[in-house]
Amino acid sequence: MMFPLAVLILTGIVALVAGILVGRLTGNHRQEVLELKSKLELANKERELAQASVDAAKGEIKRTREQLDGYRGEVVEHFTGTSQLLRDLTHQYREVYDHLATGASRLCPEGSVDFLEGLVPEQLSAGEGDAPVGEALASSDEAASSDSDSENEPEKVVASDG
How far apart are CA 97 and CA 121, in angstroms? Predict the structure, then answer.
């Protein structure tokens, strides 16, 4: 009976030593696991903060884009209005020039109207289908020569509120 009791005691001692060794080896890992869990929790909190920052930045970008779109709309509206005003101004300038050219060709002696040719560009672009200034002067000269027969007749002047 002694033999089996010695085997039991020896087996118990071996099991105790093995348990202590396994405990020591896994005990260090347990500490590492706790540290890794702590680091993971910290990383998750940092990720949540970073996501909140990203969301705030996206909101700011959206607001900035909306402001930019509004500004672009204002710029387009402004330059559309400016274009219309310049078109109107060009048309009014053309009307004034035509009035002066017609008056000069009717009222001034022949040959003295030639100086008007160099005062304006070849063509005013007041709109589609407008004739060049040279053609306008030529037609004014023709009108003046046809009107020279009726120089003795008083001319009717019509005022316009343009």
Answer: 11
